[in-house]
Write a structure and sequence with these properties.
387 residues, alpha+beta, eleven-stranded mixed sheet, five-stranded mixed sheet, 10 helices, 23% helix
Amino acid sequence: MSNTASRFPLPEDWRDAVLVGRLDLGEGPTPVVVKEGRVFDVSAVAPTVAQLLENWNGVPPDNFGGKDLGDINDLGLVTAWSGASGKARLLAPVDLQCVKACGVTFAVSAIERVIEERAKGVPGRAQEIRAELAARIGTDIKSVVPGSPEAMKLKETLIADGMWSQYLEVAIGPDAEVFTKAPPLSAVGWGEFIGVRSTSTWNNPEPEIVVVVDRAGKAVGATLGNDVNLRDYEGRSALLLGKAKDNNASTALGPFVRMFDGKFTMDDVRNAVVELEIVGADNYRLEGRSTMDQISRDPLDLVAQTIKEHQYPDGFVLFLGTLFAPTQDRDVKGLGFTHKEGDVVRISTPRLGVLENRVTSSKAAPPWNFGIADLMKNLLKRGLLKA
């Protein structure tokens, strides 16, 4: 497959799925519901996805008073880099929701974060440290339940051995790592460029399932996400997490939110296998996967920790973390993987579809210049805001 080819982004059982997303049909962001393959513009009754999900109760889209836009196959969706023109642009499927993320929710990712920390962001030191950690704690950490007595015993042993880390604290301690990944409206959708900070020399995609939560704290659906990670920045200091995670176009979501119903439940999230494919302009190829049944904390526990002492009146989305940690060398032996300009990243799982983006720098990516005030002005101009 060439690096400009695109896969149809929908779930394999898309005719049975109820999907929520946003399209730009030329006037501005438009919330849509897709059911039985037909697309319904619901902006007249729910001008934002946040409002749509606030009132969600699983009813068919015609009960929202939606306008039938036709079959999903006829939208003419194209990627931003294809050079082709399409009828509609597929946006990130959420709008006013806060974008949150959990880190170090898998044992392998915990070990890789410790490696970054000990390598001080220098990729050439990673392999030696990886071998040492695997020999000393690789098997133990996979079997413990975070916050359990066994986890606390392992913590005491690691401290005594001089092997403790702040990353192991959130991997096996009682408190999960939860951070703000991106501001509302800043995420990019399927077929858009995704940005890597131009000064980063060691970075990778993070293929994840993202749970969508309403204002009451109820998980109502899920989508795919790319939590772009700068290993050199965070490895130098965990206090650089903001610069490592939140940059222009560094968050991708999509293609649609699949709503939980009788045919798709949280158990489908718990048992999902998320596939990753990277195809470079230099014909480099990397494949990986994240198996959700190996996550250390249940998705609903992560949601509960996020809202324990915080409210989200517009709802939020929550990246659940990833098992994937690239160790394959790309160019120089011992330096591991890092992105190059033009990489096409495809994240997929059968029940959620395919999220596809192309890598550029955060400086070169289209600037984020459509914020909340711009959205309100656009909705007002279109007559979609009501008292």
